[in-house]
Amino acid sequence: MKRKLKLYIIPTFVLITLTDRYLWMPNRVKNETWMYVKGTYLGDPITYTNDFEIKDSHIIFKQNTTKPEEVNQNRKDNFYFTGCYFGWLFMYNTISDEVVIYLHKS
Fold first, then answer.
1. In 3-state terms, what secondary structure has residue 42?
2. Domains of the chain: which residue ranges?
3. Of 12, 16, 56, 98, which has the most beta carbons under 10 Å away?
4. Residues 75 and 83 sit within 8 Å (Cβ to Cβ)
5. CA 95, CA 88: separation in Å to the nearest integer?
6. What's the pLDDT at 1?
7. Contact of 75 with 40, CB cutoff 8 Å
């Protein structure tokens, strides 16, 4: 009985996780403003339409002449879209090998 239950629970969990990751999660990022918390500083605040876009699992930041030079230099790094859960945006900077965290602006 326990074995049959595992055969149903594990694939269901994997299916829900993958569906969330590729369908719903990018939509949660698009309509929000994000404030810096930790990691590589990319400007504060950032928004999907003005500062970055998501292509597959990569986040591509746009250069902004109104931002300081340090911020524009940081935006040239490679970022991986890690997740967006409970008002937190997580990115992974592959150059500096650190997690970047932004919080939903309320």
1. coil
2. 1-35, 36-105
3. 98
4. no
5. 22
6. 66
7. no
Average pLDDT over residues 69-83: 92
CA distance 96 to 79: 10
Res. 41: pLDDT tops 80? yes
Cα–Cα distances (Å) from 27 to 32, 54, 85, in that order, read 9, 10, 12
**What is the C-alpha separation between 88 and 96, in angstroms, rounded?**
20
Q: Which residues contact 21 (CB under 8 A, 6 or more apart)?
A: 83
Strands 79-85 and 88-93: antiparallel
Cis peptide before 26 (omega within 30 of 0): no
pLDDT at 97 over 90: yes
CA atoms within 13 A on the CB side of 33: 4
Q: Residue 12 belongs to what H/E stretch?
A: helix 2-19
d(Cα 92, Cα 21) in Å, to the nearest integer?
Answer: 15
More confident residue, 24 or 90: 90
